[in-house]
Every structure is written in structure tokens, then in C-alpha cells.
Input
Amino acid sequence: MLKRGKMKNTQTWTIVVLAILLLAAAGYIGYGYYASYKTQQQTAYFNLGTQYGYTAAVSDLMNQAATCQAVPVTIGNQTLNMVAVECLQQQK
Output
């Protein structure tokens, strides 16, 4: 009779340990999915911000060039003066 109680106690502990391991594995997998989702979300926001920045920069250049004044554009150590083609045609 003592053996049966000891065996039941061992089975209970085995079930408890397996349940804890199952919860730990589910948490680890869930965290992996969550981290992947957050990375994708941050990348999407970064790309959206980059696209907005490009659009704003080109729009500003176009607005400045439309005033028929030379617009200096500098990249690195190179500078280029931009003027709208329409302004050159008006001067002829």
C-alpha cells in the first residue's frame, strides 16, 4: 500500500514538472512571435518615416526651384545649383 501512494506522488510530480515545462515552452515560443511582430512593426514605421522624409525633401526642392532662384543642393562635398527648366525658358 505504501508503494502505491509513493507511485501516485511520483506521477503527480511528473505531471507538475511537465506542465511547468509546457508553460515555459509556450511562453518562449510566444515571446519569439511577439518579438518578431514588434520588429516588423518598427521596420514598417521606419520605412514610412523614410518615405515621408523623401517626399518632403523633394517637395521642398520643387517649391524652392519654382521661385526661379538657384537652389543649392549639397550631398557630401558636392554642391549643385538647381533651377527649374520653366524659368530658363521664360528668360529667352
In short: Residues 18 and 24 are 10 Å apart (CA to CA). The two ends are 112 Å apart (CA to CA). The beta strands are 71-75, 78-82. Residues 2-65 form the longest helix (64 residues).
